[in-house]
Amino acid sequence: xxxxxxxxxxxxxxxxxxxxxxxxxxxxxxxxxxxxxxxxxxxxxxxxxxxxxxxxxxxxxxxxxxxxxxxxxxxxxxxxxxxxxxxxxxxxxxxxxxxxxxxxxxxxxxxxxxxxxxxxxxxxxxxxxxxxxxxxxxxxxxxxxxxxxxxxxxxxxxxxxxxxxxxxxxxxxxxxxxxxxxxxxxxxxxxxxxxxxxxxxxxxxxxxxxxxxxxxxxxxxxxxxxxxxxxxxxxxxxxxxxxxxxxxxxxxxxxxxxxxxxxxxxxxxxxxxxxxxxxxxxxxxxxxxxxxxxxxxxxxxxxxxxxxxxxxxxxxxxxxxxxx
Length: 324
Fold this sequence. Notes:
The chain is of the alpha/beta class. The chain contains twelve helices and eleven strands.
């Protein structure tokens, strides 16, 4: 009798969940972006959200929740109701590197979230202020070796991709840099342009306009090969750091326990967006690196997240990066 009652309760729960998923969404959806408005993460998230919202038939509201390299926003998302109405725009810092960088982290990127879909990757450009004496990447490395801790590199905040990749670059090149954290990539880049700091690793979608207008000098890119938009700018791998390759990766996550049917519905909407060539062409123009279609799925994002958590544990140990 008890087993029959349990089966009946499970059946009712399944029916209720299916009905909820079929109706979803019936109200606006919130995407938590753990960085300030105006930066590359925010810009990319808003660009994708606008189109996913059209497919779902409900607005997507961006909730900028910066702090502690994105971990504040990620923790907020982990505590949200698992109903599909609060999702997290995650990236390599707080969803890949954070477990290796923070001794006390209030969430687990793998255990506390359900992966929904992955964005294309975004390489970074190492840029310096126009007046900096280093005219190329070799000269910048030489400058860093000759002036320990006097090469000031700004970043979007502790634990951001610009912070992590600058630390990895410095450790790989054998130089010491002084990192200057900001509340977002926007103000960090403004101070490079203004000459208050020496340089920055910035993502291509926000760096390219500044390079085009000659507000900064691009020295190297972090991608495996040169970018079509910056044909004269070498890669770090071909100049001073053979084998070096790094890009910012992103994905959308839901709190653990969100119905799979809801996750599937959001993923389907996103895949329709990524099937629009006019949209992906615009992303490619910003040197955002498109992925094979099967790498955009939630399942692929889940595997990638697990691999990145393991990868950054090794990187953090090698580069001696720790945040608390």
